Amino acid sequence: MTWRRDRLWLAHLVLGGAATVSYAAGVLPDLAFAVVGVGCVVAWACGPRLHNVRPRQPWRLLTAAGLLFLTGIILRTLMVDLPAPRAQLGDAFSVCGFGFFIAGLVSFLNRWGMDRHALLDGLIVCIGSAVASLLLFVMPAATIPDRPLVVTALAGLYPLLDTITVLLVANLAFTTAVRQPAFVLLGGMMVLVFAGDLGYAIIGRSGDVNGSRLMDLPFLLAFTLGGAAALHPTAKALSRATPLPIQAWSLPRMLVIGPAVAVPFLLTVLLAHESAVSRLVLGIGGAAIVALLLVRASDAVQSHAAAQRRFEHQATHDPLTGLPNRRLLAIMVERLLAERAPGDVWMFYLDLDGFKLVNDSWGHPAGDQLIIDVGARLRHALPGTATVARIGGDEFVVVRRCTEPEAMGDARKIMECIERPLVIVTAEGATAEVVVGASMGIVRADRQEQADALMRDADTAMYRAKEEGRNRWTVFDASMRDAVRERVEIEVALRAAVAQEQLSIAYQPIVELPTGRLAGVEALVRWEHPVRGWLGPNMFIAVAEDSNLISALGAWVLRESVRQLARWRADGVVDDDFWMSVNVSPRQLGDAAFAERLAAVLQQAGVPAANLVLEITESVMVEGSELTERVLVELRTLGVRISVDDFGTGFSALGYLRRHPVTGVKIDRSFVKGLGTSTEDEEIVRAVVAMSSALRLSVVAEGVETEAQRDVLVTLGVPLAQGWLWGKAVPPDEFAARWSLGGVGERVAARSD
To answer: Residue 743 has what pLDDT?
Structure first.
């Protein structure tokens, strides 16, 4: 049914073409004309409904115009032999039809929006057409003697109506950049109507009002194309235009405008012997065209200049806040550094803390609103001499020449204005109050410093502020630059080590309390730096996180650990209940295919999913996205166990544990260290055990170094532990030699290393 509906326009063209041929051949001409006329009116009335075209007002106006045109043609045929003015009754309907036809075109233009340049170009074409119509058709028709006034008036009116139609057609053509088939068909109809009226205007110069049947062919073809336009599926596109970015005088446009501009000058030569009225029309028309050309050229220059200013502003300003961007900021800083003025140049580089949470919780529009509000607050809180710029997603930079006390005062103002509650509108339309903070780096410029170096140092200080706990500021010193250089060197070496698999994995036992029986093991990555020697995870894991190496590194550790577990199981080093614990990063859990790839690793190694424990951080539960949640559920469905590492140091809460598919927790070493000496640490561990027991979660205490700590853990009911009391993390061969002891499951006495 849809296919047939989309092909109706083609059927209409075929039927209209056949009827036009029949009319031209004199075979049932009246019936042929009726078929074309009625078919067009029906198409205009029903076509937009078939394709759910909105709005329908332009098509209703065209339908009314078609009915009036059709009525006028029928009346003219019936009354052709009657004396004037009764013979012109049909023309009254035709003139009214032109009114509705013009109104329909205007309705299209109103929907599209009128472009100033398109209007000027259309007026140029209109004036050229009007001058030609007046001199070639209207004025000669007016001088024919012994003709009724109404006939003379109509002979002059039709060319003028055609001139208005030319103006509207030109504006339609100049307004849109994309011309769909429906637009082409409608444009073809207008051209044919103009051609038909032109034919009658030519014979009207000699006083004839009726021509041969062939002179009606343009009108039949026009009705055929117009009806097809309404039936074509792209008629829906006529309700909106694709605006031209620049209304340039392109070659196609000049082919339309050029003849109109040349009309007064050509007719001046051809009609040089005519009357003063003719010369007056030529003079006024030519002057009007020249004036429009000057206005158009001047407007084009001004528009180009405005566009240039707009492009320059867009290139140097943030589109969301209107603040200077990184490019303009660098220029402004260079100017400040070049000035010989009192005071130093201070730069404040700040990154919002908590912005990601707002963006993820309430949506990007709320995040954009927050950025706009922060930018406005910074502008109002700081002196007019300060430059506020936005250089990234949630990163702002403030630059000012001032004294050190003034700079510290500005730092306090910046932090205070950001920390005040902000009201945002959520995606559901509700309002919410949020509070964000900022980590800020401050640097005082050296006279010889460059803008990019200054920004780099301020950025370094900002990251130091984040490392020190966020929501604070740090003043840059040279040692930070050395730390950054060291970090870069580590990243370069780490990237090569990961690519070449130069890292190693050490394994630390996890035992049952109080027996000391081996229950599992934690895989810990180790790296021997080519220059610095052995580096602990705290030296390079953070670098891997920041440089996006953590996913590749984590995948390698997971793959090698599972393979090692498979080898131990095959060699009888461990029993079937023995499990491997491996840390995974938030980035790994943000990979939609993580669970699928892990399942492939387990299947290839022949290790049951239940023998693998993935350790996650508490931040995964707090800041994780919907994708992370889905991955965790997929891992649990696979059978993998999930434990929360360093539990108690972050956002520990019963709600998070209940909401996420975790199977265990690992008590952080900072609480284990005080056991036996600190009652507070003992109560914290007791609470964790009670909460975990209620939720049926396994509990592992890490960092156990003394027998006293072990004894307290046993008393508190902690079932599992790991630490130096039973041994440090060692290579796989050493682990197997130390813990196999001739039989898996044999109780192992506690030992210190």
So the answer is: 39
Distance of CA 554 to the CA centre of its chain: 32
Torsion of CA 556, 562, 565, 571, to 10 degrees: -90
Which letter, b or e, does each residue of 246-259 get, where b requires 16 or more Cβ atoms within 10 Å of its Cβ? ebeeeeebeebbee
Q: What is the pLDDT of residues 308-343, one digit of tens each?
A: 888 888 888 888 888 999 989 988 888 888 887 777
**Contact, 441 vs 391, CB < 8 A?**
no
Tens digits of per-residue pLDDT, 280-303? 877 888 888 888 878 877 777 787
Give the right CATH number for 488-740 from 3.40.630.30, 3.40.50.720, 3.20.20.450, 3.30.43.10: 3.20.20.450
Distance, in Å, from the CA atom of 103 to the CA atom of 57, rounded to the nearest integer, reads 10
Tokens of 477: 């010193």
Structure tokens at 247: 């209304």
Closest CA to 170 of 228, 240, 117: 117
Residue of 449, 702, 707, 746 marked active site: 702
Domain 326-476 adopts which CATH fold?
Alpha-Beta Plaits (3.30.70)
Residue 568 near residue 599 (C-beta atoms within 8 A): no
Q: Which residues pair with 717 in a beta bridge?
A: none
Whether 702 is catalytic: yes
Encode pLDDT of 558-583 as tens digits.
999 999 999 999 888 988 889 999 98
* Three-state DSSP state, 722: coil
